[in-house]
């Protein structure tokens, strides 16, 4: 047997073991846009699993802007940003984002990247090295964990939302550069990081705060600036990442921070430099998303979303399981066991509802869950129906 063939045998064994542990995952082929009503593999389902919190992914104005962007700029960018792929649309989007966040970031500037995963790799690998220490929240998104590893910094993990532990770790650090790295809204739990207190610790210990607010941007704060607006933060020490694929409904991510940091990223962040610029049409469409988020329509949709969240929380009354405490559109039903979680999702599917089932390694071992996500595009009736099915789920 050649060594290649033995690798295939090993992989096959490991894949079989994933199946046995109920960790097998598959993709579902959707034939319709991301919206509450979807058509998936021959069935109509009501989806409660996307991160399209404001219903912008299928918004007619955003779709039209994407079309317009393609007719102005074409399909692809053709090169990386520093060669020839940077378009007027990318530049306009960055200026609009910097303006939008100017109340919170002193001397701020913004950078648009192709994805949130890439933005996290870019920021952390460009700012941290072997002389740095990263203080990483226990429930951080995988992209932040991978970025910290790639940076070669010392990584110290602090327990979830534990300010006492974080404070002690910072006090005993001798690193030249200290970076605290945290999700804003925690993606699988829906709760939020205590950023006011963390920023105070940054000032006390001369540390920097990197916040990935993928699930707060567009959703929290009066104008949708996310958790930093919710907490009215303003600082030079704040480096904010937001994704533009979730509430903004399109694709990509931004980093906003002090202009010196942004210039450093443009000059030095390898994930940014060595990747082709995303299609300019995406940036063009995102200008429309951002206008909606920041305007009256955004305020209206956030109000509807908050009504749906309140409705859900008051309708849920579980027989067997526990809701995680969350004020955001991410409303997890903690089940624990992988097989029971899959069976619960299957029961809901049979009733015509599509809910995400999240298992390890996305969440810690023994904490598999249904991840219900609400959107302003859901109707009152859809939320009521799902809640009643979730309440009567059987443990099978
Ligand atoms: C989705 C997500 C990302 C990755 O963003 P993409 O644009 O999908 O690559 C990063 N961080 C968090 C917290 C996320 O939820």
Low-confidence stretches: none
- In terms of structural class, how would the helical and strand content be classed? alpha/beta
Rg (CA only): 21 Å
- Report on the biggest sheet: 7 strands, mixed
How many domains? 2
Q: Report the CATH architecture of the largest domain.
A: 3-Layer(aba) Sandwich
CATH superfamily of the largest domain: Type I PLP-dependent aspartate aminotransferase-like (Major domain)
Q: Judging from the principal axes of the Cα atoms, what is the shape?
A: globular
Sheet with most strands: strand arrangement: 3-9-8-7-6-4-5
Number of strands: 13
How is this structure best described in words?
Helices cover 43% and strands 18% of the residues. By secondary structure, it is an alpha/beta fold. It folds into two domains: 25-54 and 296-395, Aspartate Aminotransferase, domain 1, CATH 3.90.1150; 60-294, 3-Layer(aba) Sandwich (Aspartate Aminotransferase, domain 2). The strands form two sheets. Strands 3-9-8-7-6-4-5 form a seven-stranded mixed sheet, sandwiched between helices. It has a six-stranded mixed sheet with strand order 1-2-12-13-11-10, with helices on one face. α2 runs antiparallel to α12 (280-294), α4 (88-101) packs parallel to α12 and α5 (116-127) packs parallel to α6 (142-151). The N and C termini lie far apart (44 Å). The structure holds pyridoxal-5'-phosphate (PLP). Residues 115-117, 120, 141, 143, 183, 187, 212, 214-215, 243, 245, 253 line the site of pyridoxal-5'-phosphate.
Write the layout of secondary structure elements.
Blueprint: H1 3-20, E1 37-40, E2 43-48, H2 60-73, H3 81-85, H4 88-101, E3 108-113, H5 116-127, E4 132-137, H6 142-151, E5 154-158, H7 163-171, E6 177-183, H8 195-205, E7 207-212, H9 227-230, E8 238-243, E9 253-258, H10 259-268, H11 270-273, H12 280-294, H13 296-315, E10 322-323, E11 330-336, H14 338-350, E12 353-358, E13 368-373, H15 380-391
Parallel strand pairs: 2-12, 4-5, 4-6, 6-7, 7-8
Antiparallel strand pairs: 1-2, 3-9, 8-9, 10-11, 11-13, 12-13
Helix pairs in contact: 2-12, 4-12, 5-6, 7-8, 12-13, 13-15
The protein binds pyridoxal-5'-phosphate.
């Amino acid at each position: 047997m050649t060594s290649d063939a033995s690798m295939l045998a090993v992989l096959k064994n490991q894949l079989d073991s994933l199946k046995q542990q109920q960790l097998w995952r598959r993709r579902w082929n959707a034939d319709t846009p991301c919206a509450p009503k979807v058509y998936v593999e021959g069935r109509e389902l009501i989806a409660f699993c996307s991160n399209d919190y404001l219903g912008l992914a299928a918004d007619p104005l955003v779709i039209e802007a994407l079309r317009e962007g393609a007719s102005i700029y074409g399909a692809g960018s053709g090169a990386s940003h520093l060669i020839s792929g940077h378009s007027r649309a990318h530049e306009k989007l960055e200026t609009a984002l910097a303006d939008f966040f100017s109340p919170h970031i002193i001397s701020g500037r913004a950078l648009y990247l192709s994805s949130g995963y890439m933005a996290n790799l870019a920021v952390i690998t460009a700012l941290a090295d072997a002389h740095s220490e990263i203080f990483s929240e226990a429930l951080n998104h995988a992209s932040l964990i991978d970025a910290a590893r790639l940076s070669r910094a010392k990584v110290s993990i602090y327990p979830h939302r534990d300010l006492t532990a974080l404070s002690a770790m910072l006090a005993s650090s001798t690193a030249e550069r200290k970076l605290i790295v945290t999700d804003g809204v925690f993606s699988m739990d829906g709760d939020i990081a205590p950023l006011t207190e963390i920023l105070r610790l940054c000032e006390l210990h001369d540390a920097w705060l990197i916040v990935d607010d993928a699930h707060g941007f567009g959703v929290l704060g009066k104008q949708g600036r996310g958790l930093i607006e919710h907490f009215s933060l303003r600082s030079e020490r704040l480096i904010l990442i937001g994704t533009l694929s979730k509430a903004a409904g399109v694709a990509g991510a931004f980093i906003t921070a002090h202009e010196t940091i942004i210039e450093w990223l443009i000059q030095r962040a390898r994930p940014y430099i060595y990747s082709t610029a995303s299609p300019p049409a995406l940036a063009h469409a995102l200008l429309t998303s951002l206008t909606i988020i920041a305007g009256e329509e955004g305020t209206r949709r956030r109000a509807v979303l908050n009504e749906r969240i309140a409705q859900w929380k008051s309708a849920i009354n579980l027989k067997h399981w526990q809701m995680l405490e969350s004020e955001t559109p991410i409303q997890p039903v903690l089940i624990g066991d992988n097989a029971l979680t899959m069976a619960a999702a299957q029961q809901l599917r049979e009733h015509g509802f599509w809910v995400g089932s999240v298992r390890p390694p996305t969440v810690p071992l023994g904490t598999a869950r249904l991840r219900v996500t609400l959107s302003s595009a859901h109707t009152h009736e859809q939320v009521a129906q799902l809640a009643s099915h979730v309440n009567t789920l059987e443990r099978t």
